[in-house]
Amino acid sequence: MALSLYGFASWSRLQGTKDDDWADRVSHLWTVGLLTFFAILVSTAQFVGDPIQCWCPAQFTGSYVSYTKNICWISNTYYIPMDDSIPINIQERHEKEISYYQWVPIIFLFQALMFKLPNLIWKMLNDSGGLNIDKIISLAESTQLGKPEDREKFIYQVAKYIDRWLKAHRQYHYNLLVRLRQRFANVFCFWFAKRDGKYLTGFYLFIKLLYVANVIFQFFILNFFLSMDYSVYGLEVIQSLIKTGEFKDSPRFPRVTLCDFEIRQLQNLQRYTVQCVLPINLFNEKIFIVLWFWYLLVAVITTFNYLSWLYHVLFGGNRYKYVKRFLKLGDNLSSKSDSKLAKKFANEYLRDDGVFVLKIVAKNSSDLVLNDLVNYLWMFFKDNPHVATAYEKKLRDAKMNGKHAISTLEMDPEELREINHKL
User: Fold this and answer.
1) Membrane spanning segments where (predicted)?
2) How many whole angstroms separate alpha carbon 60 and alpha carbon 98?
3) Threshold 0.85, pTM exceeds
4) C-alpha to C-alpha distance for 233 and 396, rounded to whole angstroms
5) How far is the C-alpha of 115 from the C-alpha of 359, rounded, in Å?
6) Which residues sit opposite 273 in a β-bridge?
7) Phi and psi (nearest 5°) for 338?
8) CA distance 31 to 292
9) C-alpha–C-alpha distance, residues 338 and 350, integer Å
10) 3-class DSSP state for residue 418?
11) Long-range contacts of 24-27 (CB under 8 A, 24+ apart)
12) Are 322 and 364 contained in the same domain?
């Protein structure tokens, strides 16, 4: 049983799949873990300790004191500063009620679910793109620890699998409607079209947008649950530290509150107002300060990460720039014709989805693995007669015919010199 619990609580299980990048894990892994820890901490303080103490009238005995604490805990208290007089109007007291402290653990768990939800959607639906990204990343990552011959074999198999996937999701016809749809897909990044090479990329950008929207929405959720302007809470703390040089208690999380309750005595209702102390707010105040700054950090990280991905997807030239350096390391760009072929390799063979898979592999393995993977894909691309350029066909035909040089007036002089040089 202990071994089973250890296996369930292992870091690999908590970390989940590796089919995303580190910015996503800040939300669905680290933030969820932080919120779960705070939920356990506050729950322990509520149910194990004594979350409320009330100053009761002298005639109250032990059972009356216990009743007072329980009724004040479940029926909410209200905060009136010591320098202000208690309102006579009961409705004015209700308007100042503090109703969040009983529900703080549930609020934290609800927020943790919201931070995890985009990752759950991604894991459930990304396989519909026709590729098991997590399996590919696991295979690519395992090659770093294996034997050299096994490493080459595994990377070759991964590249072959990606090559088949890229070839399977292509347009069979190139009519006017297809061309118009491809142009629209180049502008509209959330275009979930498998045969246009945009499905995984568009879906992943949508998931990243959910991460950004979620962390911003969390501030509004806390504004609603806490019944206060939580969005500026951290700014007020910073301002207080600058002015006074010390951390002061916030009226947003009061420790001393008031509680009204009624006791029925025969046909009479006796109303009591007691003063209570909420030690739990000592924890809540510090926790919500930490969360405010953490949410701000997560918002900055997810926003800049999303904009970075959006920039690299919207500008097609970034696809060629990304694979160019790996092709150079493999000594596959020795001429201008090779550079032209490499652009076709990035824009027509890999497309956005292929480059996306390579980037996810790179973020979860190493540049050495990705270099071999890109160069294997380059080899498969050049061996495909349907995508080879006229330059490659002429060079291949000349070698097959045993020619040592060719001459024609229909070829570009620079291209002719390159072919003759290679022959």
Assistant:
1) 28-48, 203-226, 292-315
2) 25
3) no
4) 69
5) 23
6) 260
7) -65, -35
8) 12
9) 16
10) helix
11) 24/118, 24/119, 24/207, 24/208, 24/211, 26/298, 26/301, 26/302, 27/115, 27/118, 27/119, 27/211, 27/214, 27/215, 27/298, 27/302
12) yes
Residue in 356, 354, 327, 353 with CA at minimum distance from that of residue 339: 327
- List all residues 6 or more positions away from 155 whose beta carbon is below 8 Å from its beta carbon: 140, 143, 369, 372, 373, 376
DSSP secondary structure string for all residues of 157-209: HHHHHHHHHHHHSS-S---HHHHHHHHHHHH-S----TTTT-HHHHHHHHHHH
Q: Is residue 85 classed exposed, middle or buried when 0-12, 13-18 and 19+ CB atoms within 10 A define those classes?
A: exposed
**In this structure, are 152 and 197 located in the same domain?**
yes
- Encoding tokens for residue 205? 């950008």
State the total domains in the chain. 2
Query: In this predicted model, what pLDDT tens digit does every residue of 219-237 receive, in sequence order?
Result: 988 888 887 788 888 888 8
The residue segments making up the domain with residue 47 are 20-314
Residue for token pair 């679910």? 113
Encoding tokens for residue 115?
């931070």
Residue 267 in tokens: 């046909």
Q: Residue 198 falls within a domain, yes or no? A: yes
